[in-house]
Design a protein that fits this description.
- The chain has 6 helices and 7 strands.
- It has 154 residues and is mainly alpha-helical.
- It has a 3-stranded antiparallel sheet with strand order 3-4-5. A two-stranded antiparallel sheet has the order 1-2. Strands 6-7 form a two-stranded antiparallel sheet.
- Strand 4 and strand 5 form a beta hairpin.
- The longest helix has 24 residues.
- It is elongated, with a radius of gyration of 28 Å.
Length: 154
């Protein structure tokens, strides 16, 4: 009978996808788990392994469900209000290299950022928070900075 290397990369010939054996790739997290299993015990906890591998399928299904719920929670918490994309004006690589490009560059994004961060806000619990920036000074600073970057690129 031929010995099988459980740490070797195996590929399903019909689909072309890699197969992960019970204990995963060399040096992976599941390899450490293998070393912690002693007979039917994981450390001092009695564990029952299913011969058909259903226990591992359930573990993978749990990991997938957990990751999906984390993603849903993050998407709910951080709704896309286009503020993040407005920060591109602070990236020196985004500054245009032509005079026509620099003329209108960043004004819309700067207005959006100033509208979002330049107003005081009240939270649901009634706490009032002051504006984080002074819109006029930020606009002039970003304009000076972008012109400085523009002329360095010339």
């Amino acid at each position: 009978m031929e010995a099988t290397d459980l740490n070797a990369l195996s590929v399903n010939e019909s689909t072309g996808y890699p197969l992960l054996p019970d204990f995963g790739p060399p040096g992976g997290f599941l390899k450490r788990l293998q070393s912690e299993l002693r007979g039917k015990y994981f450390h001092s906890v009695l564990s029952v392994r299913d011969m058909s591998g259903v226990d591992l399928e359930q573990a993978v299904a749990f990991e997938k469900a957990y990751a999906e719920s984390v993603c849903v929670a993050l998407e709910t918490r951080f709704t896309d209000n286009s503020i993040m994309s407005c920060f591109k004006i602070l990236n020196p690589r985004q500054v245009p290299t032509t005079a026509m490009g620099i003329r209108d560059w960043g004004f819309k994004e700067m207005d959006n950022l100033c509208e979002f961060f330049g107003q005081s806000k009240s939270s649901e619990d009634g706490i009032s928070r002051p504006a984080l920036i002074e819109a006029s000074s930020i606009k002039s600073e970003v304009l000076k900075w972008s012109m400085k970057i523009f002329f360095k690129k010339q």
